[in-house]
């Protein structure tokens, strides 16, 4: 598909030209925040507070790289994805794509950005228009970006795309309800691919699918990355899924990144108590290893993002919490464990048992 | 994409479970699909048949009618139906009821179609715009509320006072009366559809508001619009009868179904057929539009399977 890119080069902006020489990552997120106002009153609205859905997130995604973003429900993962595809405007911070700030983009720059960055949605049912055929759904973006696909070969291109994502190309005339969940998700992937994107934001793309279908879709995403050099920001709450596909992983809690590193770092040497607790909750598939790991049970609920705790946001549920945690917000940095972690008392503590632990 | 598929073989498509790649299983795309589904549905066939009779009757009235619609014959008033020379009898002035119904259909259909057309042409765009842009919504919704609080008879009286009582003014009054409900229905549908993730998907591809309204919102709001239109149609036909009865619509002696109804009330016991028959004609018009609307709504929804195919599938399962 890469060779069919016939798009004429847009006038490159100053920032983008500087980026091209610098070798900086494709996507850089710095201090990203999104606060939703809480309003009261019907006619005269009064803002009584803010839900800090995302509150200072740093992330980078490089070319042909997959970055996993994990966290439990309500931690702000999906808000990050909406900010990334410019469905929401950030309250603070910047999203630098090829050196240009997305929130400053207007007109043709934003249009180009919205071609190069695509999204795969969580729910394969509601993310496809039930009144459009699979072929029309895949071709939808070409109406907005006609230069991506020459008008002549579109039917063939649709068939190629459906074939590429593992669907029968003859199904182009079928409606979404005639497909299974996994097939629908493939249509969603084909819709994203039709734009010849560089970065795809995957917002929990497999969490609505059966486990066997999950694996197929993940393998498809990996194959596409190998063939087309795509970058993924892979958002999920399933740790094993993220580990399988990601090169680097960031763990999110209550609107902040608490730990980040390569998948080996985060999974093999978790240093933030939240990461440790999260990892210890994953079922162990090796029968001989069951019961070997420490299971960390957290008490209490996630605090409200409208009124987050002072200092470290995890301290209300942390067994290591001390006075300093309430006073000082721990920075996300390396404290001797090999990768950045936002905990005053970060230390490597292996929670997932491996076969090395078995005697003999 | 829109390549027309060949017509389905009469009994060719068998087991519904087998994945047949061809689109001619009645489930695929193609522009002829909606028509095929309507014709495959008993409701659709009956609706089209009824409307065909009505429309043909109205169009061919000058040819079909044995007498002129205003031709008076004082020697033969109050003839019963099936009298020689007067198939449906005569009224108090000896006018032929059949001829008057045929010409009356013209007025009723015109008023009904004009009113529905006005409600759709004005109401649908306003509803879409109000549902999509918040700022416009504040204005449109308030004006809609205002219009809804205004009895349509007053609009009709006002229009009659300004432009004189006529078919056109009656249709405008009835159409204006139907606009607020149409706006509300379409606005609600727009709000429902715009929150769906496939609209987000379109927005992430930089699709503009008008484009999303046209490609996503309108097709998904289509069935609600059709239902609303099929509700407005009979209301308008009956409304025309009401306005004509009050002297605000079509002026006698020009026949309309409404005028015939109101005239016949004075001698209801003596010649009930002169009242029943135009009423029956109104009922046929309403029934025809309702059935066709129903079938059209089903046909536009890709989730419904054509009725004929459904039966065949059941038979195969047995």
UniProtKB/TrEMBL annotation, chain A:
Gene3D superfamilies (UniProt xref): P-loop containing nucleotide triphosphate hydrolases
Gene Ontology molecular function terms on file: ATP binding; ATP hydrolysis activity
Record CDD domains: ABC_NikE_OppD_transporters
SUPFAM superfamilies named among the record's database cross-references: P-loop containing nucleoside triphosphate hydrolases
Region listing for Disordered, in residue ranges: 1-20, 330-360
Keyword Cytoplasm in annotation: no
GO annotation terms (biological process): peptide transport; transmembrane transport
Short name of any one Pfam family annotated for the protein: oligo_HPY
ABC transporter domain span: 38-279
Keywords recorded for this protein, A-Z: ATP-binding, Nucleotide-binding, Transport
Similarity annotation: Belongs to the ABC transporter superfamily.
Protein name: Dipeptide ABC transporter ATP-binding protein
Native species: Pseudokineococcus marinus
From TrEMBL, chain B:
Keyword Electron transport attached: no
Classification via Gene3D superfamilies: MetI-like
Keyword line: Cell membrane, Membrane, Transmembrane, Transmembrane helix, Transport
PROSITE patterns per record: ABC_TM1 (PS50928)
Membrane topology, from the record: Multi-pass membrane protein
Region described as Disordered: 1-26
Biased composition (Low complexity): 10-25
GO terms, biological process: transmembrane transport
Transmembrane portions of the chain: 45-65, 111-133, 145-162, 168-186, 231-251, 271-292
Pfam families given in the database record: BPD_transp_1, OppC_N
Compartment annotation: Cell membrane
Keyword Ion transport on entry: no
Top-level taxon of origin: Bacteria
InterPro entries listed in its UniProt record: BP-dependent_transpt_permease, MetI-like, MetI-like_sf, OppC_N
Main location group: membrane
Domain ABC transmembrane type-1 as annotated: residue spans: 105-293
One GO location term (cellular component): plasma membrane
Similarity comment text for this entry: Belongs to the binding-protein-dependent transport system permease family.
Protein name: ABC transporter permease
Species of origin: Pseudokineococcus marinus
High-level lineage: Bacteria, Bacillati, Actinomycetota, Actinomycetes, Kineosporiales
């Amino acid at each position: 598909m890469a060779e069919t890119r016939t798009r004429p080069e847009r006038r490159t902006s100053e920032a983008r030209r500087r980026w091209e020489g610098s070798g900086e990552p494709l996507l850089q997120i710095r201090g990203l925040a999104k606060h939703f106002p809480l309003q009261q009153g019907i006619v005269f609205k009064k803002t009584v507070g803010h839900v800090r859905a995302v509150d200072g997130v740093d992330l980078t995604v490089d070319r042909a790289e997959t970055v996993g973003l994990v966290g439990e429900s309500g931690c702000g993962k999906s808000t990050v994805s909406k900010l990334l595809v410019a469905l929401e405007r950030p309250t603070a911070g910047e999203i630098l794509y090829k050196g240009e700030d997305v929130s400053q983009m207007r007109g043709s720059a934003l249009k180009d950005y919205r071609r190069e960055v695509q999204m795969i949605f969580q729910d394969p049912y509601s993310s496809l228009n039930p009144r459009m055929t699979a072929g029309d759904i895949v071709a939808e973006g070409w109406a907005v970006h006609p230069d991506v696909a020459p008008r002549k070969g579109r039917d063939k291109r649709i068939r190629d795309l459906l074939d590429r994502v593992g669907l029968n190309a003859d199904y182009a005339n079928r409606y979404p309800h005639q497909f299974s969940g996994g097939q629908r998700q493939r249509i969603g992937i084909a819709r994203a691919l039709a734009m010849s994107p560089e970065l795809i934001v995957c917002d929990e793309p497999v969490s609505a699918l059966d486990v066997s279908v999950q694996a197929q879709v993940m393998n498809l995403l990996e194959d596409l990355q190998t063939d087309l050099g795509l970058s993924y920001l892979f958002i999920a709450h399933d740790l094993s899924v993220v580990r399988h596909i990601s090169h680097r992983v960031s763990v999110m809690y209550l609107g902040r990144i608490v730990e980040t590193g390569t998948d080996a770092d985060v999974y093999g040497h978790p240093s933030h108590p939240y990461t440790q607790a999260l990892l210890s909750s994953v079922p162990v598939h090796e029968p001989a290893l069951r019961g070997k790991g420490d299971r960390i049970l957290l008490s209490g609920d996630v605090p409200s993002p409208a009124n987050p705790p002072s200092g470290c946001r995890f301290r209300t549920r942390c067994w290591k919490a001390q006075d300093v945690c309430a006073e000082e917000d721990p920075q996300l940095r390396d404290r001797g464990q090999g990768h950045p972690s936002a905990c005053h008392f970060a230390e490597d503590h292996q929670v997932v048992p491996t076969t090395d632990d078995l005697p003999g | 994409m829109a390549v027309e598929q060949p017509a389905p073989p009469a009994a060719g498509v068998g087991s519904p479970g087998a994945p047949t790649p061809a689109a001619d299983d009645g489930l695929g795309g193609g522009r002829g699909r909606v028509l095929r589904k309507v014709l495959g549905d008993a409701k659709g066939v009956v609706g089209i048949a009824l409307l065909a009779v009505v429309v043909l009757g109205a169009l061919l009235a000058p040819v079909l009618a044995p007498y002129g619609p205003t031709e008076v014959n004082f020697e033969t008033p109050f003839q019963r139906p099936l009298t020689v020379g007067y198939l449906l009898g005569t009224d108090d002035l000896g006018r032929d009821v059949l001829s008057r119904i045929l010409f009356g259909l013209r007025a009723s259909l015109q008023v009904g179609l004009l009113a529905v057309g006005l409600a759709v042409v004005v109401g649908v765009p306003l509803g879409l715009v109000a549902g999509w842009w918040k700022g416009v919504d504040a204005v449109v919704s308030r004006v809609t509320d205002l219009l809804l609080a205004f009895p349509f008879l007053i609009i009709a009286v006002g229009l009659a006072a300004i432009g004189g009582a006529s078919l056109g003014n009656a249709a405008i009054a009835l159409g204006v009366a139907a606009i607020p409900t149409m706006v509300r229905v379409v606005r609600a549908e727009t709000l429902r559809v715009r929150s769906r993730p496939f609209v987000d998907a379109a927005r992430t591809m930089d699709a503009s508001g008008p484009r999303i309204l046209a490609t996503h919102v309108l097709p998904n709001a289509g069935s609600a619009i059709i239902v609303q239109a099929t509700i407005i149609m009979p209301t308008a036909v009956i409304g025309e009868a009401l306005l004509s009865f009050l002297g605000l619509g079509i002026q006698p002696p020009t026949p309309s179904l409404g005028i015939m109804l109101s005239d016949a009330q004075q001698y209801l016991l003596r010649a009930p057929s002169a009242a029943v028959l135009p009423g029956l004609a109104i009922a046929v018009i309403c029934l025809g539009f309702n059935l066709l609307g129903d079938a059209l709504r089903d046909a536009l929804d890709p989730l419904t399977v054509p009725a004929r195919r459904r039966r065949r599938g059941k038979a195969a399962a047995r």
